[in-house]
TrEMBL record:
Its EC number is 2.1.1.-. GO terms for molecular function: sterol 24-C-methyltransferase activity. Pfam families: Methyltransf_11, Sterol_MT_C. Residues 54-341 form the SAM-dependent methyltransferase Erg6/SMT-type domain. Keywords: Lipid biosynthesis, Lipid metabolism, Methyltransferase, S-adenosyl-L-methionine, Steroid biosynthesis, Steroid metabolism, Sterol biosynthesis, Sterol metabolism, Transferase. This is Methyltransferase. The keyword NADP does not apply.
Length: 350
């Protein structure tokens, strides 16, 4: 169901940005980041613009190379990437204890890959919260194709200011999305507010471990590559996320780094030393082909000017993620997926 063709990739670059404005958007986006002299505080202050530009520019690349679910997964030997991603989403639904007919919120839903999988797996109605118009348009079309458009929908809004009344949802989850928030506490507090009493919240989070050394220039470089390549204002330490959850009102009952126990490294699909026909587009050869394809499409005018620049910073991100994973200072998702939290009258699986 994902767009797989070269022309689909070319036509999708830029999202809702006018095609003749893509290069300018790329330049503006790059200026937010440390690699080009940008400051963390500026990224946090302008996170809405930064993240929207990022996903307008990168969504078609994600879907072309990765599929409809824009996240990694704890993976077993003999398990394909696609299988691990589905299991990862099913695990989240099971941790939440979802029941047919419940009303669920997906915070930062992308184009809705997990939303559709979880809705079908659990027979629930899922609302996807997203601030990017292009991703919502794409998600609605994919919902229609698989037939969940009557039970699942999308709301365009900022997850720091959700347009829902208190106690609106039976369950809430976030998959590698709240890392885009400029303030973890503010985001978690909003999630707490819209969650019904006695119900659950589950998430996978991007974090750094205590092995990260802020004085180490190599660590700084890798962190900056991940931030520019993934639209992040900053990457928080896992302990900062846990502290923010407690401040938001949650008591942590269970948290676990599943990536640390994974028989197959989470970053394997991005490792250029690894070759797989099933994930060919992510391999060194596949990336080489995509890079030159994008270069050709831009040259002949089928892809907007600036497309190659997007491909470049996404590749930088891939390199940074692999280096960070190998260095063990970066956890692609601080597997807070297996973290159960409880706060006063609310139970939360995180």
């Amino acid at each position: 169901m994902s767009k797989a063709g070269a022309l689909d990739l070319a036509s999708g670059v830029g999202g809702k940005i006018e095609k003749d404005g893509v290069l300018s958007a790329v330049e503006q986006y790059e200026k937010y980041h440390g690699c080009t002299g940008g400051e963390e505080e500026e990224r946090k202050a302008n996170y809405t613009d930064m993240v929207n530009k990022y996903y307008d520019l990168s969504t078609s690349f994600y879907e072309f190379g990765w599929g409809e679910s824009f996240h990694f997964a704890h993976r077993w030997k003999g398990e394909s990437l696609k299988e691990s991603i589905k299991r990862h989403e099913h695990f989240l639904a099971l941790q939440l204890g979802l029941k047919p007919g419940q009303k669920v919120l997906d915070v930062g839903c992308g184009i809705g890959g997990p939303l559709r999988e979880i809705a079908r797996f659990s027979s629930t109605s899922v609302t996807g919260l997203n601030n990017n118009e292009y991703q919502i348009t794409r998600g609605k079309e994919l919902n229609r194709v698989v037939g969940v458009d009557k039970t699942c929908d999308f709301v365009k809004a900022d997850f720091m200011k959700m347009p829902f009344p208190d106690n609106s949802f039976d369950a809430v989850y976030a998959i590698e999305a709240t890392c885009h928030a400029p303030d973890a506490y503010g985001c978690y507090k909003e999630i707490y507010r819209v969650l019904k009493p006695g119900q659950c919240f589950a998430a996978y989070e991007w974090c750094m471990t205590d092995s990260f050394d802020p004085q180490n220039k190599e660590h700084q470089r890798i962190k900056a590559e991940i931030e520019i390549g993934d639209g992040l204002p900053d990457i928080r330490f896992s302990r900062q996320c846990l502290d923010a959850l407690k401040q938001a009102g949650f008591e942590i009952i269970w948290e676990k780094d599943l990536a640390n126990e994974s028989p197959v490294t989470w970053y394997l699909p991005l490792d250029t030393n690894h070759f797989s026909l099933s994930t060919f587009r992510l391999t060194a050869v596949g990336r080489f082909c995509t890079r030159n394809l994008v270069k050709f499409l831009e040259y002949v005018g089928l892809a907007p000017k600036g497309s190659q620049r997007v491909q470049d910073f996404l590749e930088k991100a891939a390199e940074g993620l692999v280096e960070g994973g190998r260095s063990v200072f970066f956890i692609h998702t601080y597997r807070l997926p297996s973290l159960i939290l409880i706060a006063l009258d609310k139970l939360m699986v995180f």
